[in-house]
Specification:
Blueprint lengths: L1 E3 H7 L7 H10 L3 E8 L11 E7 L11 H12 L20 E4 L5 E10 L8 H9 L7 H13 L3 E5 L6 E6 L5 E3 L5 E3 L5 E5 L2 E5 L16 E8 L1 H11 L4 H6 L8 H16 L2 E10 L14 H6 L5 H10 L3 E2 L5 E2 L10 H12 L21 H15 L3 E2 L5 E2 L14 E2 L10 E2 L4 H13 L7 E11 L2 E11 L4 H10 L6 E3 L2 E5 L26 E9 L5 H11 L5 E12 L4 E10 L4 H11 L4
Parallel strand pairs: 4-7, 16-20
Antiparallel strand pairs: 1-3, 2-3, 5-12, 5-13, 6-12, 7-10, 8-9, 10-11, 14-15, 17-19, 18-19, 20-21, 21-23, 22-23, 24-26, 25-26
Helix pairs in contact: 3-10, 4-5, 5-8, 10-11
Length: about 625
């Protein structure tokens, strides 16, 4: 996200820190600054002033309010203890709320929406300051009305959109697309829609998507009347649509976040003021408001001593309440705290404590004097201790641990081991992996197949992780152990070393047990040396060698002899598989098995023949 220093100063007139310090402080309060640079003067600063451009990585998953200048300025106001000057916006324009012909046919996808109609517009290029600001944010200036909507998005972090009222016949409908419908974006891109995409229609004509406007409804120099809307949608629906249709826009990246509706009226009023000022337009009583979000103010208990206890340094009660106040929180008469509506990430006392410490400054927390030295009670869950004990046992038995992905493809389901209803993710990382596994075996088989393809000898692998399923309409998570082995006796050894009985389910050479059901066991530790992990790039080549000696040999000496003759960078393993004394010849015959990795089989054979003098 791009931020310009001079724009921040409009909201924080007393901001007076160097460009470098602001970059460091952004990072300190949780908005990582990936880089900054000095700019020439612009945007109303005097000619002798300098300006700065910042590239922030706003963690928008839980702070979508900081996708706009106001959210970031609020944080800086609290951090620097300076006043926040919000835009002065007159209210009272929207006297009638339902005169516009707007329909919400898919209320499940629309959280909140407000719209207004504007007339007698003069569409022309924006003033220089606005064009410069948009260019700095990598947004192309279009015209004064479109640029106003983009400016509002940068300021509040919530996208808005303008339609030519005459092109859409003064009516809009938020609905979903039918299979094989098409939409044409403002830049002429044709989108092949799927059934269920969220679209905005005028009659049967698609005039916009949630994240990008349409070619047939855009604002141009001939526009004299417009309908401007600002809306907050179901982020999962927007994310799926953007991904399926390959839509990448500033608006889309914001609408995919869990924005808490809070300031839509303010935004509409601000748009109206700017349109009067920059488009010389007139307001109407044709407005619309829709709310499908019930806001209940939270009353969160807050112990003002907790920030000091958590941070290990003294943070006064007065400072704690001042920080929360500057962040927009309200202290109620009963001592509880109500966070601002747009801060949907603050829901419990720990969140308030975190906010106080974050703004107080992690750099002020000393490390010399811990708050207390008393030994804390061990709160490690038993299932974690059990998992660690099992890992120790299995590694001691020669097993490799694998870490599988809890998400699987549809064709990776194993009906024989998965009996319950599957749980799926709404906001998965890709279109293929969206189902949560019900059994460790479903991911363990994938790794076992990889070992087989690479011809890893005597594969013994295990995985400990979570499985997910639905039972009695409840989502259930459980820790599970999966083992791939050809020696089931190892299962008895695990129970023996833990001094408990584990219940196993088998699926061929795969075995699984639910660890969450085991609480009575003996912890098991070992002192194994550190081992290395190897990446296999080719199949393992397994070769035998039969070597005869006049006298019986010490197996350890033999192995050391041939180990020294083979490059350790390609030798996976070397064992004596068999010994035989030939009474007829009086020879002692040893059979070696050598496995070579990350080299072509032809090279492995050549090295093998030379090492064992078989040429």
């Amino acid at each position: 996200m791009i931020i310009v220093y001079s724009e921040l100063k409009k909201l924080l007139p007393n901001l007076n820190v160097s460009g470098r310090k602001l970059a460091d402080d952004f990072t300190l309060i949780g908005h990582f600054c990936a880089g900054y640079k000095e700019l020439s003067s612009h945007s109303g600063l005097d000619s002798e002033s300098v300006d700065f451009w910042y590239d922030l990585e706003v963690r928008a998953a839980n702070r979508p309010d900081c996708l706009g200048y106001i959210g970031l300025a609020t944080d800086l106001s609290a951090f620097y203890k300076i006043n926040l000057l919000l835009p002065s916006v007159e209210t009272g324009y929207m006297q009638s709320l339902h005169n516009l012909d707007i329909k919400i046919s898919t209320p499940q996808y629309v959280k909140s929406l407000q719209a207004t109609k504007l007339i007698d517009l003069k569409i022309q290029p924006s003033p220089a300051w606005l064009q410069q600001l948009l260019n700095l944010h990598n947004i192309n200036p279009i015209n004064n009305l479109v640029d106003i909507t983009n400016y509002i998005m940068l300021l509040y972090g919530i996208p808005c959109h303008a339609f030519d009222a005459k092109k859409i016949d003064n009516k809009l409908d938020w609905t979903t697309s039918k299979s094989e419908e098409k939409a044409v974006t403002f830049d002429g891109t044709i989108l092949n829609l799927q059934e269920g995409n969220l679209v905005i229609k005028s009659g049967e004509q698609i005039v916009s998507m949630s994240s990008i406007g349409g070619e047939n409804s855009g604002i141009d120099t001939y526009t004299t009347e417009a309908i401007v809307e600002v809306a907050i949608y179901d982020p999962t629906r927007v994310h799926k649509d953007n991904r399926a249709l390959n839509i990448q826009t500033e608006a889309g990246s914001r609408l995919e976040k869990y924005i808490t509706p809070g300031s839509l009226s303010q935004i509409i009023h601000h748009i109206q003021m700017l349109v009067v000022e920059l488009c010389h337009g007139k307001l109407t009583n044709d407005n619309f408001s829709f709310e499908n979000y019930i806001y209940t103010p939270l009353h969160i208990p807050f112990d003002s001593n907790l920030p000091s206890k958590y941070a290990g340094t003294n943070i006064s009660t007065e400072e704690s309440y001042e920080i929360l106040s500057r962040l927009g929180c309200i202290k109620n008469p009963d001592g509880t705290i109500t966070p601002p509506r747009e801060r949907g990430d603050i829901t419990q006392e720990e969140d308030l404590v975190e906010e106080v410490i974050r703004i107080y400054g992690y750099n002020k927390i000393g490390i010399e004097n811990p708050i207390e030295n008393s030994l804390k009670k061990d709160i490690t869950p038993l299932v974690i201790k059990l998992s660690e004990s099992i890992k120790n046992i299995l590694v001691e038995l020669g097993y490799d641990e694998i870490r599988g992905w809890p998400l699987i493809k549809t064709d990776q389901k194993i009906p024989e081991v998965s009996k319950e209803k599957y749980t799926t993710t709404q906001n998965s990382m890709n279109d293929e992996y969206f189902t949560l596994r019900q059994s460790i075996v479903e991911t363990l088989t994938i790794q076992a197949d990889i070992y087989s393809r690479f011809k890893v000898p005597s594969s013994k692998i295990f995985e400990i992780g979570k499985i997910f399923y639905q039972k009695d309409n409840q989502n259930i998570e459980a820790h599970s152990l999966g083992i791939y082995t050809t020696n089931p006796k190892d299962l008895d050894l695990i129970s023996e070393k833990l001094n408990t009985q584990l219940t196993w389910k088998s699926h061929g050479s795969f075995y699984e047990t639910i660890l969450s059901n085991t609480s009575d066991f003996k912890e098991y530790t070992n002192n194994l040396p550190d081992t290395n992990a190897y990446e296999l790039t080719t199949q393992i080549t397994e070769l035998d060698a039969n070597i005869a000696f006049d006298k019986q040999q010490n197996p350890v000496d033999l192995l050391e002899k041939y180990f020294a003759k083979i490059d350790q960078n390609i030798l996976w393993s070397l064992v004596i598989k068999d010994y035989f004394f030939d009474q007829k010849t009086g020879e002692h015959k040893y059979t070696f098995t050598a496995c070579y990795y990350n080299c072509e089989s032809s090279l492995a054979k050549q090295i093998h023949l030379e090492a064992f003098d078989l040429v």
